[in-house]
Fold:
Amino acid sequence: MRSTSVDAARLPRLPSEFLWGASTAAYQIEGAADEDGRGTSIWDSFTRRPGTVRDGHTGDVACDHYHRFDEDVSLMRRLGLDAYRFSISWPRILPSGAGKVEPRGLDFYDRLVDALLDAGIEPTPTLFHWDLPQALEDEGGWLNRATADRFAAYAAVAAERLGDRVKRWITLNEPFVHMSLGYSLGVHAPGRTLMLGALPVAHHQLLGHGLATAALRAAVPDARVLIANNCTPVRLRSDARSDEDSAAATAYDALHNRLFNDPILLGSYPDLSHYDMTDPSWGGVVREGDLDTISAPLDGLGVNYYNPTWVTAPTDPAAGLPFDLTEPQEPYQRTTCDWPVVPDGLTELLTGLKSRYGKALPPVWITENGCAQPIGSHDQARIEYLAGHIDAVARAVARGVDVRGYFTWSLLDNFEWAEGYHQRFGLVEVDFATQLRTPRASFEWYRSLIAHQRS
Ligand code: FCB
Structure:
């Protein structure tokens, strides 16, 4: 792998209209869990179940962003961000998921949007970043087709209130991760362990995406709509290159990447026969017209990238999955999540999307990319991570991929799901005892990168 200069001034220049951003999500930063009529979400319930989250941490207070958003917007202004990706908490706006609207919840996002616009930062909300109202979980969550309709109704409420000022919308965050960790493996809320029985969650989320896209466009005719998909290049170890290994890679790619990109970009599902899924209606889950709804043309594809995935043929085919996940042989650097640092995987991913989808690929925004590093470190590893991955984006752009922006994960240290407050992804360190925010060296680095790219 080639080495990348971490000198921000020496990184390749992205196109002048390229958008520089940072991302967060409601449950991970807002806190104020019981305030202003907010309903219960599946993460409130899940974090209360013993043994679900490291050290029993919850998002009850998190970064207290609900009360400190002005300070956080000032930090963003100092960074020089063009855009800020945050998520709207569905249960703050519709405490029971549907029906009665809570105006105080909408007021909060109204104030946030105005503060961002005053700072010259484009608000880019995501409508669903995993915090489903518990009342909808009680009716089956995303296993229930009706949740897709509820999601579109919620999208309309948010768009009617904010759409005069918010023009770029993201429907779902990482439907693959929500399905697999939330419904297949039970590592995330709602904590179900259905394995492949979770597949209807994929379809219902995608249907929700399609219905919400139509609702957003009806309320905001000039809305630009994206989805943020978690994508991974699928790799084989160099000592595992049999036909069976290749078949395993194809099967994993279908589940992680194509299941969520093909229906949106091509209007069809990939071959799922490795999962004993040969009925095109998935036993009645996929209904006539659904794929037309799901494949309404998008204004952009959001790509969240953290690392490639290595697979081999399954050692125990009776276990029910057509692949095993494995570790690379290469001694990659690791983040504190133990995720390998592989910047060239991002170039591979982006050029791979272009060759797979061709003209059907809309412009791409990197909607998440970043790393957890030890608290109190000099932050050099985070700077190297960012430099390497931004350079990887520039290489994809040089090869003709239309990438329009980069949102780093994350602005602030925050509640990292099952890891609680143990993983530190922020450009800004947060002391969760005092709520003191301290910009890290990577904050200064990102600020100088943005300034340099604009100069
Ligand atoms: C992504 C999530 C985001 C954050 C990062 C580290 O999968 O979308 O909320 O947890 O991982």
Remarks:
- The mean pLDDT is 97.
- Residues 106 and 351 are 39 Å apart (CA to CA).
- The longest helix spans residues 243-265.
